[in-house]
Amino acid sequence: MVEWTDFERATIQSIFSKMDYDDVGPAALSRCLVVYPWTQRYFGNFGNLYNAAAIQGNPMVAAHGKTVLRGLDRAVKNMDDIKATYAELSVLHSEKLRVDPDNFRLLADCLTIVVAARMGADFTADVQRAFQKFLAVVVSSLGRQYH
Amino acid sequence: MSLSAKEKVIVKDFFAKVSSRSDEIGAEALARLIVVYPQTKSYFAHWKDLSPNGAPVRKHGITVMGGVYEAVSKIDDLAGGLLTLSELHAFVLRVDPVNFKILSHCIMVVLSMLFAEEFTPQIHVAVDKFLALLALALAEKYR
Known about the structure:
Number of strands of chain A: 0
Strand content of chain B: under 5%
Strand content of chain A: under 5%
Largest interface: A-B, 23 and 20 residues
Largest sheet of chain B: none
Number of helices of chain A: 8
Structural class of chain A: mainly alpha
Radius of gyration of chain B: 15 Å
Oligomer: heterodimer
Distance between the termini of chain B: 21 Å
Shape of chain A: globular
Order of helices and strands of chain B: HHHHHHH
Largest sheet of chain A: none
Structural class of chain B: mainly alpha
Number of helices of chain B: 7
Shape of chain B: globular
């Protein structure tokens, strides 16, 4: 089981309680598709992903970004058993969606960059460490059911 | 992966725009490196003060950022232009190249924090590529 310090728990709850999921989700996913264009392979039916402007204006990308953030919320609310919380989602990503688990790490990095932009100076080094630890647990749990 | 002519312009313009705060960027990025990735402290065991806001860390962050700016000025031939730095990292410092990626991430987090509006996805991808190519140039002499 992952050990969380009081600071880490409080930090994660604080970040997500102040976050606008409908802003951050689309921003993080669209950034991922621009910065790591090979991730577009999973979104063949999303229409126009031809350039950065198209990606950032694409309503299906925005909708899916919100879906992903709402999925992340489950881990925020179950920090003491993220592995079990994501068991089903892990199977889904492995067996049905067939997403290379390294892509979870890429999206996590983009999410960190977006949250840093939103929080500015409040995104201190200690806050960053807590946030990245949380995302690392999420990424690991999502990759857990791959065989 | 190589930088297009357009991306080189994006990188040069962006780094010129943020140059007045380059010391702050460097100091903050290195502080984050050792806080968020404590294993990197292994390279600085010879410093008495390893606190993120202490003088040695901040000073070294400024040095490193100076190197990044030197690379920007040599963006048309990174491997050739950074030969001396590559030899330093290969034979003297022997920094495991995985740490270049980690530091690049920390630099970009700081850029995103300080220049939220400017660090758009289009600029992010060009800077990410540039830092990756810089890392490759630094590792040129490793083996």
